[in-house]
Amino acid sequence: MYFFYFFPLGLDRPSRRHPVLTWALMALLTVVYLWQRWGAPLMGADPWDWVFFPGNSRPWTVATAVFLHGSWLHLLGNLLYLHVLAPPLEERLGRPALLGLVLVLGVGGNLAHGLASALNLFGQGGLGVMGASGAIAGLMALTMLRLYSARVVIAWWLFAPIGGQNKVGRTPVPVLWAVPLWILLQVAQMLLAPDTGATVSFGAHLGGFALGLFVGLVAGELKAGRNEAAAARGRRYFRDGHYHAAAGAWTEALADRPDDAPALAELARSLMVAGRRHEAKAAWRRLWDLHRADMRVDAALGVYDEACRAGLVDLLSPAEMSEAARFKELQLDYRGALDVYRRLYEQHPGDPQGQRALVRVIVLCRGRAADAEAAELWLHEAGRTLPPGPWREYLEREFNLAAAPREGVPAGLRALPRPAGS
Q: What is the pTM of this model?
């Protein structure tokens, strides 16, 4: 003699924000059930007036019935599955879309029950329907499309008193196994319903699931699911040290969404660690262009800084490096700006942007960066390399720049100083 109980805990996909809408829906269903049990009698109302019976004269009940439940177990079961399925969909689809889907799928499931009841299928003739099960079945279908590579974490309890067994645990089950298994169980129970007298609304379950499947396919959730599955593989491969495979997975994830900034960043990192520097540089370059086109200055600067840390200091053109340094100055990141200006001069000493960068290094060292010793060394460098022109005249006027010999530079000045903290 043994007993086996199990229930889902959630999906193995972490959420990055609080599922506020999911919590609100769970609270609403609970409040409505409390009203059914205790509020309605006190108000002289009959909750059965809000239950959907096919063919009645109150068409709005096809929607109100979604929020009613027949028992605590009915409510808790739906709350549990809502807790498992809704948060990842809320994060991916957005709150307005999820709210609309819950209503549409719930109503669609109730209408499917109405059809089964009107045709007296599977012993369901004349039965009313209440509950959010149709909506939850539709969310299950959407989960199977959008998150088909995810796994459901199942908690279980095995209790066999005769054999002296009492075990508990949790097991991850792939969504592509769990959902079809649920469908098979629903179909089996539905076929046996005329003999067992079951009053579960299998029409609402299967109708909601079919509608969710249709909506998801039309909305392109399967394609989005393929991209997400590729991204999940990319993270797993990178974590396990398979960097070439990770780069391939991220390339696949970008096939349908070439402007996915997080995926581009992960691709660049995977390529860099795999030793494919040229391809990594191209990926970071695409990411810089994407952020600049969207006017996301902070994100663009972050891309450049990361590429420089990886040794790809030639990611930007002289004009773009000058722009990056100017943005850092506007953000009051003077040490960061100083580092970019220094790098710009060292890479392009003969370019007008490089000459301007040398002047900005001196100005910052004398001013905001407060490094007088470095300023003197950079002044010596300017006196040695700056050609006649407005920049040299500016330094002569403002900082008493004197011409330095182009040969015989002291050994201490051969290695140009880097700003402190860079």
A: 0.76
**β-bridge mates for residue 168, sequence order:** 157
Rounded distance between C-alpha atoms, residue 173 and residue 268, angstroms? 32
Q: Each residue of 244-260: b (16+ CB within 10 Å) or e?
A: ebbbbbbbbbbeeeeeb
Q: State pLDDT tens for residues 136-177.
A: 999 999 999 999 999 998 887 766 666 566 677 888 889 999
The topology under which CATH files domain 3-219 is Rhomboid-like fold (1.20.1540)
pLDDT at 268 over 90: yes
Q: Assess contact for 227 and 257: CB atoms under 8 A.
A: yes
Token digits of residue 51: 């239950």
- What does the alpha-carbon distance between residue 7 and residue 21 come to, in Å, rounded to a whole number? 23
Of 393, 52, 9, 388, the C-alpha closest to 169 is: 9
Identify residue 359 by its one-letter amino acid code. Answer: V
Question: What CATH topology corresponds to 221-311?
Answer: 1.25.40
Structure tokens of 76? Answer: 């808790």
Contact 384, 390 (CB under 8 A): no
Does residue 306 contact residue 274 with C-beta atoms inside 8 Å? no
Model confidence band, residue 353 (pLDDT cutoffs 50, 70, 90): very high
107/137 Cα distance (integer angstroms): 12
Q: What is the 3-state secondary structure (H, E, C) of the chain?
A: CCEEEEEEEEECCCCCCCCHHHHHHHHHHHHHHHHHHHHHHHHCCCHHHHCECCCCCCCCHHHHHHHCCCCHHHHHHHHHHHHHHHHHHHHHHCHHHHHHHHHHHHHHHHHHHHHHHHCCHHHCCCCCECCCHHHHHHHHHHHHHHCCCCEEEEEEEEEECCCCEEEEEEEEEEHHHHHHHHHHHHHHHHHHHHHHCCCCCHHHHHHHHHHHHHHHHHCCHHHHHHHHHHHHHHHHHHHCCCHHHHHHHHHHHCCCCCCCHHHHHHHHHHHHHCCCHHHHHHHHHHHHHHHHHCCCHHHHHHHHHHHHHCCCCCCCCHHHHHHHHHHHHHCCCHHHHHHHHHHHHHHCCCCHHHHHHHHHHHHHHHCCCCCHHHHHHHHHHHHHHCCCCHHHHHHHHHHCCCCCCCCCCCHHHHCCCCCCCC
Task: Kindly report, residue by residue over 192-231, the tens digit of the pLDDT.
Answer: 877 766 677 888 999 999 999 999 999 999 999 999 999 9
pLDDT digits (tens, 9 = 90+) for 370-380: 788 888 888 88
Of the candidates 299, 287, 134, 103, which has an alpha carbon nearest to the alpha carbon of residue 201? Answer: 134
